[in-house]
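Record pair follows.
FIRST:
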Amino acid sequence: MANNYTVVSSSTLEYSGDSVAATTIPTSNLLTIIPDNNYVIAASDFTIGSALPIEVTSVTFADTTTAYDFSNHVLATVTLAQWYVMPASNDTVEVDIDGNAFYKPRPRLSFTTVNNVIGSQVARFIVGSSSSATVSEATVEGVKTHTLQCDIPVNSKALVGTAQFVATDDGFFNSLPQYKIISSNPSKWGTKVISKLYGDYDAYLATPSDNYAASPRNGEVNSYTIEFYYEMGEKEVPLSTGESIIFTQPTETLWSTQAPVVSINKARYSGYKNQGILPSRNTDLSLNVLGSPGATYDILVMDDNGLSYDFTSSTFTEPLTTSGEQTINLGSPTVTTISNDHAITFYAYDEKRVLSKYLTTTVTPTGNTKTTVDGTSVDPYIITLNQFGEVDFTVNVTASENGVAATTATVLSFLNKTPLSHPTTFKPSDFPLLSTVNNSYFNISTPLSYSVTDTVDGAFSGTAMVMDTSHATKLVLVGDTVSGNNIDSGTVVSAINVGDNVKAYTLNQASSTGPTPDGATITFTRNVGVSRQPLASDFQNSTQSNSYKTSSEVEYQVTQATTNSTVVNVFDADSDYSLIYNGQTVQGDSIDGYPTVVGGGGSNSIVLSSFQTIPSGEILYFSNAMSYYEIIDISVTGANTSDCKLNIEGHINRVGHDDVVESLILDNFLTSYVAPIATALTVECVLGDSIKIVPEGVSNTGVIKVAGTGGRVSSSTISTDGSYLIYRAPATGTTETITYTISDGVSTSASANIVVTLT
């Protein structure tokens, strides 16, 4: 029988002779018991199955959270016997644990929907396909109510239901369905609205009649579908919390009551959406104008130089030229929307320029022709197409504010590439016969160091030194190594700006060989330390101010539908909006063109550079000019040594539509080196007993090891790894002193004392 849980073993690195009594081996170890998916556990259900091994004195069980919660694990604390000593070879201690895990259903969301049934409109609510659920339906006095229960995996988002509305045979919708979500936590809900035109109906929702098929329809909205999503946590959301969706169905207009309208319904370039990107070569375009038979219009095509397209010569000329009035010809009596196709040639754009070329097309209705099927608008259709010049992608390393610089600052210079192209990527060592000309892979290991020279202003022989230049100008810091004429080895800067003189320094020691003459050259050097290892997020987009980017696209979901607006509200499950910043390019299924974030960076309410119509629930993608690159590995090796190196490996997956410069900010993770400092300690020890003493001190590396001991002591032993020492007290006495030093692997500290009080 399956246990439905896993016990994770525990291991430690010990040395032969280490013991529990000497505290060189931990007294206790933790085993973690983890339930399988859809199972829960509690500490009270676990026991020892057989007799404990002789090395173990006891085993206790404890819950990490609340018993039988999905998040709960059980910790088994195994206590070793005091006599246990590590043998010369590996040793395994096995503990027999018995217990039970119990199956627990996924958290359940319960909610209701309420909608008014209008006329013969089809209106229904279908449970989401991504969740197991039950639904009941009731209609009382024209009000339809659904009660739903959905089982959703813990901490996941699921489609919980779909509301669908279909107009009557002789009708169309002229407004969106209105709905209101009542919830104890509205941020858990997300929606997506889908509209469908005549002829694109769902057959299982409505069967069109003959009158429906023959109606003079011109691209009207025939149906709406609204998808509802819920972000489930770990607990059930019962019906008592009042989660509900209240609908008001869209207003319907009957075609039989409408006067015929001659209109243009759409104008588009085949294969390109508005604000689309054209290739740099000569391009033959097809402009499609869709509308009702008899609709008339005029076309004006202009480039960014103010030249207009001559439809006769197929060239752009200085005199203003248009297509002249065009008519959508009559078609079949049953066809209500027809298209005219117009061939337009846009010439090549070969040179690289800062500014792009663009093509603006204006389709203007003439006569009685409208640009909406309800006859309320005569606004022209305006389409803009872009043709970008070649782009560059550069990755480099900045010099830090404390003077540290990479020997090789340019990691990759990837120049003159086609916008939005996906370059070849391969590791050259794996494919030595391939050309690297268009390879976007980069791998660099470059030294990090700081060295600067200055001249002495006045001879000196002690520890006071005055230079010709300010310490701030030379970026000299306390701790920098000093070398030059009559400067002893091991001399470092111990103070700067002495007496408010920015050129005055104090050294840690005086010269033993004589004075340093006036005008002598002094060299300041510094080993480079790190506060942490670098991350891909330490790259700054140099084309944007005060903004940091990730190496990949980030995505957020629209929480509220927007119509012809620049303000968009987005949602992130972790409420982390730090990866949205001003200047990013935004893309999505409904996005027109290539808008950028111009306001609201770092928040959930952003402002775009152009007006957009975006349904709720749509996923938006944020990037640096739509570029996408990946950092495979980044690290600093040899920190605090003369062999300190920065290592970066990665590749470009896609170049953007504009030049991009990414700069690694060294100041995010570099520090100046500080030698270790040992700290005086006071401890107590029982006569004849022994204690473990862990050294204390300061080190930039985070590594402190005992480097040596001395003084009058009975017995003290440094551990094999140098992380602690064992002191063994004599049988008589009152105090003993241990003199010790510490090391970080680069240098050794001055001595400090450990005073042991014997009791």
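SECOND:
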Amino acid sequence: MMAYTYQNNSTFQSGMPDHIEAEVDLKELVNSILGYKKSIIVVTFVITLFSIYFAYFSDNVYQADLSMEVQGGLVQQSSANDFLTNAMGVKSSLANTIELLKSRYMAQKTLEKIYIGNRYFIKEDYRKIELYKRSPFTVKAEAISQELIGREFTLQPIDEKKFRLKIEDIVVSEGKKNNYDHVHEYGSLISTPYFRFTVNKLGGLDKRDFFFTITPNNMMYTMIQSSLSIGLSDEKSTVLKLMYRDNIPERAQDILQAISETYAEQSVFYNSSSAERTLKFIDEQLKAINEALQNSASNLRDFKSSHILIDLGSKASTVSQTLSQYETQKYEIDLQENTLKHLLDYIKSNKELIGVDMGPVTGSSMAITTLMGKLQEAYTYRSSLSVDFTEKHPSMIKANEQIASLKSALKSTVESALRSIAQRKANVQQIINTQKATFETLPEEEKQLAQLNRSFLVNEKIYEYLLQKRAETSILESATESGVRVIDSALTGDAPIQPHRKVMVIIGLVVGLLIGLLQAFLRFLISNKIHTISDIENNTMIPIYSVLPLFKGKKSLYEEALRVLLTKFEFSSDRPKTIMVTSSVRGEGRTTTALEFAKVIAQSGKKVILLDMDMRSSNVNKKLEIQNQIGMSTLLSGKNTFEEVLQCTDHGVDVVVAGPLPTNPYELMMSQSLKNVLDELMKHYDYILLESPPVGVIADALVLMRICDLSLIVFKADYSKKTFIKNVNRFVDEHELKNVGIILNALELKKIRPWIKKK
């Protein structure tokens, strides 16, 4: 079955339904979307073509990898007894270490080691090839305007000494541009209002164009930061994996190597700086103790040379040794106390703890050492952030809050340590006082000798202690250990990691297809045209009597659909004899539908006549290629008889054409003559088909619809608009018309089949 016909053509309520459930058959929807297959193919092809272009003309991207073990933070431990260097020697959190490595500060230091702001190219086979270290010349830029950053300069060698420098479209004023084209010598300063640099020749330049770009440091920092990525080998490891991506594999390796070397050098720098400060402190103490030691030794010699006593007695010797031991302890305690007080003063003054001479602090608290390390780390991290962010940035605010919290904790810890030291100092002082009381009971000469001997021993022990600490610190000052160990040097794979050309083409194809389908679907949604049977069903309750397929060389299917429609009429209890065929607008195929339906009726053995009632714009005579001098207009006006206007076709269909345009077509249709003609024709014909003007355009169609048994309104798929359906709904409702049906014309066969199965 090639068409669906409404099986109950009796009276019905026309117009829009109260509630229409839009049921879109999936196959029908697919077929509708595929109706835009040309646009789908075009969109898919264009996007795929772009993906091919970008896949094969994009620069290769290589990745260099470097593994590095970080045993400490930015600096290492300088002295076991140095608060500052101890603090620096505490291992930084790896998270902060990663942030430091990716910071703008580290990018700056890296660019000081390896400058990559200038790039040099040649063009071969429509592609740019970057020369990197193979460039036969270098450019030393001093200044460049914002407009020319990243713009290509063209260098054309002339001879061994001269070259031509060109750049186009330099903005000189609003709306005005100028081209730069001048000859210069290698090694000479080129100074213009827009740039200032020197081109230095490194080797022989052949006679071809070279190109270069200049990018200032502030932009290179960002480029390095964005191209660098850092990760951990595993959660428990202190090994960092540095990865850098660049279109030049050698440059990617160089940059990674420079970053690791820069980090190690900065660590050594802080180590040596911290040790230098400690040495300065120790040297000051040594100078004072050395003088005291020389004086005490001299006094002891003088006393022994002027007195008979050579050695102390047993009691005096014991007291003297005990006193010297505890006085040495008291000196060390005083040194610790003074250093802690010095640290506390810096904390209270809100100064950064960088550059504080801490000195040797024996027996310092591990809690203080740890807090100092975290605080120093926090200062370093904030310093790296300050290059990129203002104080109001959330990252800076968080860093400052962390510093404030650590300083508060450190202040409390130092104050607690000072109280503990004060107690130790009091205990040692009590022992010293007890021994001094015993010392006072000694004979005078023996007491003087013991005192001089004690002073010498104390100064000697302190001097030896300081010399030991100075030796330790000197070793650290000269040490080059950074706490950073490169496990795997920077290495770039042979194959680029990007672009994935085959994948890009496949993705382009898929994306193109999806976008093509999407645009087709959107066009389908926003389209006001009738594309499917559902477009009619969802917009009206007027029954669909038939769906006629698009010809496309298969007229037999079209005729079969009309034959099915005839069969329905034949088996209907109230078979219509007068059938009007009209449309919503012109061009929807009402004339063809009426003619072909008349032929099908004639082929079935039934007598049929076709009346062309469109007296304003006759079409039947044009389709049949017959005369139109007389017809319905002359018949209804009484100028001709029925026998005179009747014409027969080769298909067995009797036809009365419209005739010449009358002055009053509407009055003719309203006349009794038309009713009389129809009454007479019903005596001789099984079916009377009336081809009518479009519904709602003129009143002629309304007259005919009131006198015919059935009115069929033709809509054309992919031509008629959904608004036409609404107009027909309104027309039918306003005039309370009955026995109205719809024929959907020229619908693609693939859109009909799912609908037939559904029905």
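COMMENT: The domain at 528-758 is CATH 3.40.50.300 (Rossmann fold).
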